[in-house]
Amino acid sequence: MMEHLKKDLVIVGGGPAGLAAAIAAWEDGIRNLVVLEREHQAGGILRQCIHNGFGLHRFGEELTGPEYAQRDIDRAKELGIPIQCDTTVLEVTEERQVTCVSEQEGLQIIDAGAVILSMGCRERPRGALGTPGTRCSGVFTAGTAQKFVNLEGYMPGKRVVILGSGDIGLIMARRMTLQGAKVLACVELMPFSSGLNRNIVQCLEDYNIPLYLSHTVTKIEGRDRLTGIEVSEVGPDRRPIPGTQMHFDCDTLLLSVGLLPENELTRGANVTISPVTSGAEVEDTLQTDRPGIFACGNVLHVHDLVDFVSEESFRAGHAAAAFVRGNLPKAETVRVSDGEGVRGVVPQKIRKGISEEVRLMFRPAQVFKKASAVVECNGREIARKRAMIFTPGEMAVVPLKADVVAGLDGDVTVRMEVGS
């Protein structure tokens, strides 16, 4: 059975990004829309994030992940937004034709007036690391372990080492400890943590879990089940230093070694992908270089706070609604580029002549203390944000005021400046 449909707006992904975008578009008057979600219910990764710390920026209170997600789910239900779960999107074309399949609806081909890509991200697996050793059981990504513990009630192991200091790994160090496991160490390749500082304090220091910076796993041992690992210090070139090996007897290794935007559908739509963020290149409306195709949330660039995901996705929903109504004309743009010490500025383009505030988001390339993020246009400074510390684990945001944006007359660069 095949069904051919027409929708004003199709939103791919029913996590926090997709839900926020759908709510914004609906409140702007777009009624002929649908959210396509591959899981059996909406909410995305937040369903398994049972710790608190969500919602402080958006709601002014601490929520758990499921509580945060439920607020958007309830709002979508209140508005009557259709969310089609258990649906896998097979293809999105640059002409905005969406092909999807589900057990209940069969094969569907949807011609969309606009498409919002909000598929989120995935974890980098062991195969991407090249760590030598056997392929024994007991090696999990941190997110998989989180799903086992929080949603399915299974403990992955009892003696644990965590490779990588991303937020999920840090949170799982605490979670595994609270569940009775012994977390022996958290090992980080870089000389700084890639997680939020509050998670380092609350998840490692509060439980006396050591953090080994500039270290990595150099050997995995075990035939059927993991029996131990070897950890070595690395030099400035990130190569193991001979003679620095440490051995840990453990039955579980959790990998928290980075997140990758889930962009297979984006590439299929011939959208230009940023080599730095691994997400789509977008202008300030979050529209890609394919008219009517927008991207937001972790599929665009990996965020550290879901509050920022929602904020960004509301903008995408409003912009997509304007596109459907014909109120988002194509405009000439200026380029936004990474300068010294900056990685992955989003958006990569700003429309010329608009009079709206634009928030530039990026991650510092390293830890900067007593520094400034400086925004320049044609060699002149147009914005500056000072802070005592900038770290790669926390997204930096520099707002450009509406009058500054209206006066842009050339390409923009964002760079770090120390001691300013």
What does this 3D model show about the protein?
There is one protein chain. This protein folds into 3 domains: 1-123 and 258-328, FAD/NAD(P)-binding domain; 125-257, FAD/NAD(P)-binding domain (3-Layer(bba) Sandwich), CATH 3.50.50; 331-420, Sandwich (Immunoglobulin-like), CATH 2.60.40. It is α/β, with parallel strands linked by helices and 420 residues long. Helix 4 (167-178) packs parallel to helix 5. It is built from 8 helices and 25 strands.
Radius of gyration, whole Å = 22 Å
The count of helical stretches stands at 8
Mean pLDDT: 94
Total E-strand runs: 25
CATH class of the largest domain: Alpha Beta
| Main pleated sheet | 7 strands, mixed
CA distance, first residue to last residue:
64 Å
Helical content stands at 10-25%
Q: Name the CATH homologous superfamily of the largest domain.
A: FAD/NAD(P)-binding domain
What structural category characterises the helix and strand content?
Answer: alpha/beta
CATH topology call of the largest domain? FAD/NAD(P)-binding domain
Low-pLDDT regions: none
Number of domains: 3
Overall geometric form: globular
β-sheet strand percentage: 25-35%
Q: What is the CATH architecture term of the largest domain?
A: 3-Layer(bba) Sandwich
List the main descriptive attributes of the protein structure presented here:
420 residues, alpha/beta, FAD/NAD(P)-binding domain, Immunoglobulin-like, 3 domains, 7-stranded mixed β-sheet, 5-stranded parallel β-sheet, 25 strands, globular
